[in-house]
Amino acid sequence: MTERQFSVVICVYTEERWEDILAAVSSVRAQSLPALETLLVVDHNERLRARLTREFEEHAASGEVRVLANAGPRGLSAGRNTAIAVARGEFVAFLDDDAVAERDWLRHFAEGYDDPRVMAVGGRTLPAWASGRRPAWFPEEFDWIVGCTYRGLPPGRVEVRNVLGGNASFRTSAFDAAGGFATGIGRDGDKRPLGCEETELCIRLSTALPDAVLLIDDRSVIHHRVPPARERFGYFRTRAYAEGLSKALVARSVGSGKGLESERRYTSRVLPAGVARGVRDAVLGRAGGAGRAGAIVTGVAVAAGGYLLGTVRALRGGVTFSVAPIERAGSARAGEEDEAA
């Protein structure tokens, strides 16, 4: 069988992450299953784009590493859509600009696509704490705060509602069926850290293709850097609040049934168990137990507040986002539209 070809997308926006960006690209180039290409999409930062173009000039001719400017509005969603539109691979994989992938990352993704119904495969993201260790108060149930796989997700290769965007792959044909990432819902480096754009896309994809299967394979591992600022409780609160706002947008797009399906199990089973563990550890005199229990309770309360405010804003029409079809070179959709024209 011919090896599957992946276009790897890394969206970047600031020179402050220069060394992280280089490390991310190096981890892709070291894959046991070589990527067809690495697409670096620069989010409206001409100085960074020019610097990256110079850095990877020798790889540009072969197409191994291509540097692109975000062709849409500022933000992660438009950057990803820019890459999807020009990707040459049958599959598109996304890697955060401050993460490094383990050597078999793409190979494990590829194995998940043996079933033709599989439209997306995600992986496991582990935190690389700047301090060298997890803060004692930081609960594993909230590792999504720092963009990582959280306690409560099932192990192994399992079917899920949605993959997590910083460590995920899709068939490129999935975007022909469902469109791209919604703009106005995802992250912008200079604004409040909203998210959930991959959740909204995955639910939309499952609606467009009812037989579609989405998987997480925890052997596809990346290590995500957590800077000192994100180890602080203030960031924890801010990110939890932003998650609530984002979930309100997702619910507005796809309905609260699908939009909050996984979250209901998480809040009714995973988090109470986490609080109980924290209280038990506190009683036993273990470090951080009370802090973890308190952080879980605070996180839930703050996220709920964000969700309520986001819902009110959505009802008033104060927040908008849009989904546009992606014009991919060589896609069936592009060909159909050319004929219609």
Automatic annotation (TrEMBL):
Source superkingdom: Bacteria
Domain spans labelled Glycosyltransferase 2-like: 7-176
One GO MF term: transferase activity
UniProtKB keywords: Transferase
SUPFAM superfamilies from the UniProt entry: Nucleotide-diphospho-sugar transferases (SSF53448)
Gene3D superfamilies with a match to the protein in the record: Spore Coat Polysaccharide Biosynthesis Protein SpsA, Chain A (3.90.550.10)
InterPro entries per the UniProt record, alphabetical: Glyco_trans_2-like, Glycosyltransf_2, Nucleotide-diphossugar_trans
PANTHER family hit by this protein: GLYCOSYLTRANSFERASE, GLYCOSYLTRANSFERASE 2-LIKE DOMAIN-CONTAINING PROTEIN
Name of the molecule in the record: Glycosyl transferase family 2
Source organism of the structure: Streptomyces xanthochromogenes
